[in-house]
Batch of 3 targets.
Target 1
Amino acid sequence: MTRPLLQVCEVTKDFGGLRVLRGVTLSIGAGELRCIIGPNGCGKTTLFNVITGAFSPTSGTVWFRGAQITHRPPHAISRLGIVRKFQVPGVYPTLAVAENLEIPLLSRPGIGGPWSLLRTGGRAAARSRELLTRFGLRPQAARAAAALPHGQKQWLEIAMLIASEANVLLLDEPTAGMSATETLATVALIRELQQEHGIAALVIEHDMTFVRRLDCPVTVMLRGSVLFEGSYAQVQAHPEVREAYLGHAARA
């Protein structure tokens, strides 16, 4: 049996007397996509905080490529290739779009001092052009990131994560604020990254149209625990999920 790329084992997280995560266990393999859904307050974002090292779990462990990373600091986990996109686009608003990409490209592990930058600068520029094209941002390359429409800001941040040589993307509501057309384009983009580059992704999302279109395994969380895991169709048909989360929308 193939060992998971990223594995969360019986993780709990307490804040004072409040238990937010209750023995969460899940895993994702290399090149696998998985959506995490659940009502607000069920622990989805706290789980991402534990995986990325922003929070230490009260108990339980997190593993990456067979090594325990439970108490490593965020920068060390990021350098392993586990990177996160927040709900609000985390771009550098006053820098040009192309400059936003140059920062992660020239900050990758193995890039050394000034002489190393001279050697790698040409490759970084070529990679930047490739990413700008892939994400449909080439015409916007010289514009300040602040001037981009919301959907393109979201794409720019994902491009920046790819530029950092990510192995696992943790995407927190990547289509928030997007139009229906932009949402479908984002589905296609994530699929391309998975199929062409073998990138794995855990995606927190409330937009069930996006979840259905992504067509990947779904983990349902409720009150800090994993309630159910299965395909979109199985999740939609599960009576507890319908009652707890999907509600009347699932019956339509």
Target 2
Amino acid sequence: MNQIPRKNRRSQNRKWFVPVLTVGAIVVSVGFCIGIAYLFFGLMKSSNAYKGAVARASESSAVTAMLGSPVKAGFFLSGNISLSGSSGQADLAIPISGPKGKGVIYVEATKSAGKWTFTKLAVRIKDSRQHIDLLAEEEPLPARAGP
């Protein structure tokens, strides 16, 4: 008898195999890239140089006057942080925003004996292009009583 040859499952689904495999590979690749970026930015944001810079900008009366309150840090910062034991260096540009506008914190810091010291800490307001030097805003220490 003349029987029509039966197609196996693989040949029946061949037209779906390549597109599904391609989309799957793209999804895995994009997920991997997002994971690496999230890990990278998370590590930079966990540094004390980043935390200290954002805290100083948030507490600055000049920054809050220009951007409004609360001041929030953006996700996509740029720059680098290099650490070697209790020493290191940081060079960062941190986007910030508030209800009134946006700006960028520029940070240069060195770490020695486990303590970060800022050599540059300034905010540039995007709309007005005004620069606010956060290191110049430091309040002097209270005078001590006695000799």
Target 3
Amino acid sequence: MTSVDLNDYFYFVHVVEAGGFSRAAESLGIPKSRLSRHIAQLEERLDTILIQRTTRQSKITEIGDAFYQRARAALDQVELAEAELKRKKNTLSGQVTLSCSVGVAQFALKELIARFMTDNPQVTVLQQVTNQTIDLVASGVDMSIRGHTDPLPDSTLIQRLLAVVEWNLFASPDYPTDGNPIAMPADLANLQTLSLGWRAHGDHWRLEHGSGKIEDIPIAPRLKSDDMATLKEAAGEGLGIVTLPAYTCRDELASGRLVRVLPEWHAGRASLSLMMPRRSGFAAPVVALQEFLLAEFADFVATP
């Protein structure tokens, strides 16, 4: 039986993800000749050309691309196994960087990050909180959580779905409706509203009934903000009706400070995805946090 050299897999994957031998050699800090030697012996063992090379460029072949998917998956499993072993031995140590939006940081990750760090006392977490989309590769961030309503464009990033969250309508139980109950979307006309996104134009809510019926409701928000906590506080003070991810209002619903408005309708659904750069050799703490979020995040943000 021919032995498998995981170093060959590692170097092959790194060349593919770096976009060529020169960039991969520079990134790894090794001679380009060593990379070429490993790829050549891998191709010899497999008796096939994985990367077509010329004097000016290199291009992965069709069969090479198929092999890359398998090789990447194999390395992922090795990294996961190492992280799991270190976690069980309580020797997982190192640093992991994570980027997320303000809302995700405030209402989802603050408890999850604390739990992860309690379970892994030798791991340091660097959390960047921003509503701006960042370049993970350029900034050196290990992973980010991004909210989106449409599929994210294809990119060089690994995308893994964490959860789909529902947006609901909320208001204070004392919110004045002039004695007119809110029984259907049309009843929202002329009522005071609060809206996420201070630069939003063409304000409206697209509401969907459980039966699939959809209605677009124009709104004129009294308050627009990028901060969900500010909007939630304003709603709790009776200043208007707001649409927010359901999980962000779990505590207020439980205490009675907020109530659902039009509970049979929702204001859309959004996906939260974990984004990671395609690169070889994720450190064990990075793999551990990825797996922790994939296992725990969906339950934590489920609609209350």
